[in-house]
Design goal:
It is built from eight helices and no strands. It has 126 residues and is mainly alpha-helical.
Length: 126
């Protein structure tokens, strides 16, 4: 669909990419979500927390805790703010991958970053 849009000279922007990544998230298509996020960089389209959150969540649903973990580092490097949704998806990914130490580390990091945690975050670390 994005390729068809580009051929039709429709500008691919952050909103367009975010919608496509969200569709991948809902379909647990983590590889496609990661590919779209990388394509954004190549196309010089700015990614944002929504795009990253959907990609982290797609990785969580696909059982890719290490990829979700790496995306957090990418967000920090790209100066994209991590929020409750980001941390919750990453903590859930770590939980699903039996990475309890990393999940607890993320919960502690949330506190230090003054990001509000929620029931999802706490339940995944218990």
């Amino acid at each position: 669909l994005l390729a068809d849009m580009a051929l039709g000279r429709v500008e691919l922007d952050t909103i367009t990419y975010s919608a496509a990544v969200s569709a991948c998230e809902n379909g647990a298509q983590w590889v496609k979500a990661c590919w779209l996020l990388a394509d954004m960089t190549l196309a010089r389209v700015e990614s944002n927390a929504i795009t990253y959150n959907a990609t982290v969540s797609a990785c969580e649903k696909g059982g890719q805790w290490a990829k979700a973990w790496g995306l957090l580092a990418d967000m920090a490097l790209g100066r994209v703010e991590l929020d409750t949704i980001t941390y919750s998806a990453a903590v859930s990914a770590c939980e699903n991958g039996a990475q309890w130490v990393k999940a607890c580390w993320l919960l502690a990091d949330m506190t230090l970053a003054r990001v509000e945690s929620n029931a999802i975050t706490y339940n995944a670390t218990v």
